[in-house]
Amino acid sequence: MSLEPPKLRNDCFAMPQGVDWVPVDEALSRLRASLHPVVATETMPVALATGRILAKDAVALRSNPPAANAAVDGYGFAHATLAEGVNTLPLVAGRAAAGQPFGGAVPHGHAVRILTGAILPDGVDTVVLEEDCASDGQKVAFRGPVKPGSNTRRVGEDVMKGQVAIEKHSRLRPPDVALLTALGLQQVQVFQRLRVGVLSTGDELAQGTATGPHQIYDANRPMLLSLVAGWGYEPVDLGQAPDSEAEIAAFLDQGADRADLILTSGGASAGDEDHVSRLLRERGRLTSWRIAVKPGRPLAMAMWNGVPVLGLPGNPVAAFTCTLVFARPALSLLAGAGWHMPQGHIVPAAFTKRKKAGRREFLRARLNAEGAAEVFASEGSGRISGLVWADGFVELPDTAQDITHGTPVRYIPYSAYGLMPAG
Ligand SMILES: Nc1nc2c(c(=O)[nH]1)N[C@H]1C(S)=C(S)[C@@H](COP(=O)(O)OP(=O)(O)OC[C@H]3O[C@@H](n4cnc5c(N)ncnc54)[C@H](O)[C@@H]3O)O[C@H]1N2
Ligand code: MOO
């Protein structure tokens, strides 16, 4: 019997026929539906909680500011005592300063020297800026009209005691830590850090120094571990597994004990040595495999001993892209911070491309001086230098698109995925 080969397409990125490709949005919604927060809670000092996720609404224990106070250095008095035009008021002895309240009340028709942050003494509701005054130390003179309450801060004008200051599920940033501290919270209840296992697979990966051209360095593992750490999770290095189904299964068993989610890279496709996808299909509970996305189409999503596994493709560009697009929202959901999609913005294209229908594409991109998106010269999935050259992605929709200079495209900076910007 003679063999009848298919028509040569010679397009390694064309979506092979006879496969049910899962659209990106479908894969994302399946992933979202299959996950829920898995981490316990703990109480910790606010000062150490940056990057952690609130497990309970943070309620103000005191108001900010806790008392009405002066917003500037100047002179304070009761507004009702003022006349039209120039006012000359006698000064009381002493002054009101931050941390050194004025003892006593300021009599009607008098003024007091007051500094920024000082509690308004009884008899003072308005402050005039010292630059607008003349004073000989006994009296102070200034021109009206002055608005009642000017240059003062009301009690609780920022946040009132008892108010929810920061909602449950928020990831704490430095300003959050400042607010919680100002509101008298010294401890917060947060979720424990999500543990994320990272496993590389492949006989070609050098253990230590590469001994020949058949060996390559394991670039994915440090990249994935540092992404995980940068997002505030606990990276768990699960090492390297050879191309052996039994050994990969043992590494996954171990990983499922040590981590709340496992990222593997390599062996996700359907070749002779692609053991990860086979294992996940045969022994895991596969939710999606083969996504209509470029790069990253062999991505496999499954459960192993009850722990979610994302079987990332081995090509570093595909592994990186799938981690940002699929793993990031999944980790956030598991960690208690909810499901979040990155914010992109529409910019003009500074490139041309005819895009086929049937898959989503993420091009390595950066903005030029005019704010238009240029893309890396090669779409090769092993070109790590393109990830370094880029500052983000251009995300092209599942439909066909003919892009010329100026066509509006969606640009998503790396920073929208929570990556530190360069420089
Ligand atoms: N006949 C077909 N071949 C391939 C297809 C296909 O549909 N038909 N898909 C291609 C696409 S797209 C991708 S992506 C890759 C993904 O394959 P795997 O996930 O099975 O990955 P591997 O074959 O194990 O590795 C791919 C590539 O990446 C290198 N690699 C692997 N691990 C690492 C690591 N930790 N650090 C750096 N580089 C790594 C590996 O050596 C390979 O060169 O399959 C295509 N093939
Ligand atoms: O899509 Mo593969 O993920 O290009 O290299």
Concise summary:
The protein has seven helices and 26 strands. By secondary structure, it is of the alpha+beta class.
Using the coordinates above, name the CATH class of the largest domain: Alpha Beta
Given the helix and strand composition, which structural class is it?
alpha+beta
| Poorly predicted residue ranges | none
Number of strands: 26
Classify the beta-strand content into a percent band: 25-35%
CATH topology (level 3) name of the largest domain: Molybdenum Cofactor Biosythetic Enzyme, Chain A
Number of domains: 4
Question: What do we call the CATH homologous superfamily of the largest domain?
Answer: MoaB/Mog-like domain
Q: Radius of gyration, rounded?
A: 31 Å
- In the CATH hierarchy, the architecture of the largest domain is 3-Layer(aba) Sandwich
What small molecules accompany the polymer chains? ligand LQZAQKY5, molybdate ion
SS field, number of helical segments: 7
Q: What's the story with the biggest beta sheet? A: 6 strands, mixed
Q: In one word, what is the shape?
A: elongated
Mean pLDDT: 95
- Helix share bin: 10-25%
